[in-house]
Amino acid sequence: MTPGDDIIDLIGSFGDYESMTYTAGEYRDDGIQAENRHYYFTDMELITFWYEDEEILGEIIIKDSTFTTSRGISIGMTPDDIISAYGICDSDGTIYMYQTDTGYIYFHTDEEECIDYIGMHGIY
Questions:
Q1: How confident is the model over 63-73, as pLDDT tens digits?
Q2: First to last CA, the chain
Q3: Exposure of 5 in the CB half-sphere (CA atoms within 13 A)
Q4: Which residue, 19, 38, 95, 116, could crosslink 110 as a Cys pair with Cβ 3.0–4.6 Å?
């Protein structure tokens, strides 16, 4: 599963979500407005764009301490660990964002400068 996937059938594969919220989203070229849906699970959040005929995964936020990126980064690690694995990037000191082939991966750090969640979002 990656950002950009149609996930109508996959939401249930994660089990029951704890809650779901939605807000008005952006318009497609054909004038149809998306509804942004946020599905909250224990250690994960899925953000989707719902149109009249499809639901597209836009962003994944992972808070599960057992998750590790392909370069070995996980929750609790530091900015130095991120930079060692992914290189230097523009950062505001809290979010470290890197472009990938399908979008972006980013690392959010807390006030103790430890990663508290990892996010991935696509380019559309």
A1: 999 999 999 99
A2: 16
A3: 13
A4: 116
